[in-house]
Amino acid sequence: MMIKDTSLRQDPDLRKELALLARGCDLVFPSRFKKRLKAFQQVQVQAKKEDLLPPALRETIPRFYFPRGCPKLNYNIDAVIARIENAFTEFENEKATLEDMGKVAKVCDCPFYWKVPLFCAAGGERTGCVSVHKFIAMWRKILQNCHDDASKFLRLLAKPGCSYVEQEDFIPLIQDVVNTHPGLTFLREAAEFHTRYVTTVIQRIFYTVNRSWTGRITSTEIKRSCLLQNIALLEEEEDINQLTEFFSYEHFYVIYCKFWELDTDHDLYIDQKDLARHNDDGKTSSMKWQIIGSRWDKKPHKERKIGYADFVWFLISEEDKTTQTSIEYWFRCMDLDGDGVLSMYELNYFYEDQCKKLECMSIEPLPFEDCLCQLLDLVKPVCEGKITLHDLKKCKMANVFFDTLFNIDKYLEHEQKDPFSIQRQDVESDGPELTDWERFAATEYENLVAEEAANDQWNDG
Ligand SMILES: [Ca+2]
Ligand SMILES: [Ca+2]
Predict the structure, then answer these.
(1) Is residue 318 within 8 Å of residue 200, measured between CB atoms?
(2) Cα 459 to ligand 1 centroid, rounded to whole Å
(3) H-only helix segments in 337-418
């Protein structure tokens, strides 16, 4: 009989014995240990028997876990269906085209930009329109099974039989935002940029929402994120640049221009040489290998490169090292042997490059031992000599930690800052604080616009 290791952990005595046994200690004889294990298992089995309640008793416990939302008692599905039927009478042959779907979405009590997912889920993509019967059959099923917005949204977007959404499932919705949002009129004419914008928004959604890094967003992840609020806001906010979380055109423009500058041959891939030019080589080269290597492990070094989607993750992580995803991103890059902790060897590996760069700039670097002391003071890891992801998230200074090890410019910036001035800033600023990423994107956008204007003047004059 197998017993789970979690149950073993609940018995401290046994754990100690196990540990001793593992170290080959003579104090615990195998026969004695086996006896002990058997006694422990018996206790476990007995406890389990007590857990099993008779069926009658089980039924009296009210259900409290609703993965697809808690059903609303007084929600009248038939009344909603009647309203939809009525709305369809206005359309020719009681069939809704894509243009009619905004109205249908509102009748269904959905945000306006759910219109294309609604259209596609009812089969409209294939035939170009949706009949009242097909639409009602689809929507009734969703209303009966999904009781909150996250699970409805997921059901509309996901492939049949899937309990998650993947990147490509978002394409129709975001392409529709490009086609119809008043804040993107100018982008509509530049069809060659549509896929770039769509890719950027999808990557940003996965960056923020897909906390499990699986490439599959679940309804729980949607619920925990601000995705649906942002999609709902598209309807109210004409200036798309206000939606800095995912949809901002300015943010897209900055990311894309940065990529374009590095991708000199414009084959939509950048290699290590290209990446070395980012921020005039603020990033040391070991880290650059890691960024590129982590994605293309199996390829020989020379062929390794990253595409645009990976670049979106890199740039956002690089410019804002305070978010959960960013901390995880850099942790993964630094954990060279993939054992889930950062060893002192791994820290030294990256710091060596940093020292070389500092020496080139005629700045004398701190010896590694001193730097290590500072870093350990900053992070205060639970286990000596090992830094875990949890330690880094808890210390609230992960950005300083990472920059010290592999970003010269930002490391020097942190060094020069008076720690008290940062605190003062926090107290004095009113209104919502900008994130590091938002601040970077706003500055870069201004620079790019100024550059463009200067170019125009040059060409005209
Ligand atoms: Ca290239
Ligand atoms: Ca490691």
Answers:
(1) no
(2) 28
(3) 344-360, 368-379, 389-395, 398-406, 408-416
Q: How far is the CA of 270 from the centre of ligand 1 (A)?
A: 4
> What residue ranges do the domains of the chain occupy?
72-145, 164-247, 257-420
The DSSP code for 212 is T
Do the two domains 164-247 and 257-420 of this chain adopt the same fold? yes
CATH number of the domain at 72-145, please? 1.10.238.230
Q: In the CATH scheme, what architecture does the domain 164-247 have?
A: Orthogonal Bundle (1.10)
Nearest ligand for residue 265 CA: 1
CATH class for the domain made up of 257-420: mainly alpha
Per the DSSP assignment, residues forming a β-bridge with 445 are: none
Distance from Cα 344 to the centre of ligand 2, integer Å? 9
Alpha-carbon span 411 to 362, nearest angstrom: 15
Which ligand neighbours the alpha carbon of 334 most closely? Answer: 2
Q: Calculate how far, in angstroms, residue 267's C-alpha sits from the geometric centre of ligand 1.
A: 5
Q: What share of the chain is helix, strand, coil (3-state, %, to 5)?
A: 65, 5, 30
Alpha carbon of 214 to ligand 2 centroid (Å):
21
Ligand that lies nearest to the alpha carbon of residue 308, given by its number in the listed order: 1
Residues 6+ apart with CB under 8 A from 325: 207, 208, 211, 317
Is pTM beyond 0.85 here?
no
Q: Tens-of-pLDDT digits for all 461 residues of the chain?
A: 444 444 334 444 444 444 444 443 333 344 444 454 455 555 555 555 545 555 555 556 667 677 777 777 667 889 999 999 999 999 999 999 999 999 999 999 999 999 999 999 999 999 999 999 999 999 999 999 999 999 999 999 999 999 999 999 999 999 999 999 999 999 999 999 999 999 999 999 999 999 999 999 999 999 999 999 999 999 999 999 999 999 999 999 999 999 999 999 999 998 878 887 876 655 556 777 677 665 445 555 566 788 999 999 999 999 999 999 999 999 999 998 899 999 999 999 999 988 988 998 899 999 999 999 999 999 999 998 899 999 999 999 999 999 999 888 899 998 887 655 554 455 455 567 899 999 999 999 999 999 988 888 887 76
